[in-house]
Sequence to fold (155 residues):
Amino acid sequence: MLTIRLSKVGKKNKKMFRLVISEKTKDPVGDSLEILGSYNPHNKELQAKTDRIKYWISQGASMSPTVNNLLIEKKIVEGKKAKTSKISKKRLEKISKKKEDEVKAKADAEAKAAAAAQQAAEEAAAPVVTPAAEEATPATEEVTPAETTEEAPAA
Fold:
């Protein structure tokens, strides 16, 4: 089966890639049927022979996930396949379970916060009268000298 994939060329810390079509089981650095373009990951520049890529895809060639994502991103291949992921199924399940747990924890935290806010609102609406507070206030009224009425002597 033929595959369009990247073949590494360039220096150790200055990697460049070629888009090549070759047999899937062969080494990508070895022999290839045709060089279809190049990709510079440092400045994200892709140079591709669009007509040749479309030709090989029409002949039944597949693409590696990286090449598929590159060609869709640069709009060379449109509507063929959606972007693919390199994540394994187990890893994907772990990630989705972790996200579900985070959503549940967030929902629980919001529910607790709403319950605490409702309880605080209820406490604020109803005045709290404690028996100790009633005993602390004096029950007898004090009479001030201005309020006392003295009967004036009749003259």
Q: What stands out?
A: The two ends are 134 Å apart (CA to CA).
